[in-house]
Amino acid sequence: MNNNINVFGIHTQAMALRARRAEVLATNLANADTPGYQARDLDFAAVLAGEGAEGAMLTTDARHLGGVDPDFSYALRYRDPLQASLDQNTVDVQAERAAFTDNAMRYQASLTFLNGRIRGLLSALRGE
Amino acid sequence: MSLFNIFNIAGSALNAQSLRLNTTASNMANANSAASSSGKTYRAREPVFEPMLADALDPNGGADAGVKVMGIVESQAPLRHEYQPGSPLADADGYVYLPNVNVVEEMANMISASRSYQTNVEVMEASKRMLQQTLALGQ
To answer: What pTM, to 2 d.p., does this model score?
Structure first.
């Protein structure tokens, strides 16, 4: 019974990605008034495709631990601005706030799934 | 990489925006400070922001950069020149020099700075909630 590695499914990676995305979006919001700053975001599809490809660490030995690039830097993309300002700043505060809230909700969704999973396992362990 | 870093990022933005509010307050306070020569007259000031890491503008650089104030620039707009022969600061022709502060512009700047400040506080609140719920995981 060695399936404990996959108990939490994709949610551990999803939470790492969501935490990183929150950081990138917070950077965009912090630089909303910085001249020349280009807003960035993580490309979810690139991360999903990148698992096991360029994003993953190489495991050339059975004892190596696999893992993904914690910064997800390979999935960073510049945002296509709806309307850039004259000072070349491409942060759209409303869009960034919406994305930040969306990201926080998805993080919570992963947390809820994990909590349910843990509760299920605990009740199975207790056998009550 | 962690949610804790968001506090550094949003904190740097709070710092920069409060400095912007400070310069706005200083400009408004000195909007009518007369002087006897153009060299001694107060000029409207404005901070210039830049990303905290130099490589934040580099496509392959890290994205976790806060913001910092690169410097404060003085407005190059012409000073106001008013005829006030009764003023002790008036020059030989009876004129005094007044700052080039545009009060309407400063008001708009103040609102913009306080909204940006508010946005970053909300970012911190949201990250705090995310962290607290993560810490309570499985309880």
So the answer is: 0.80
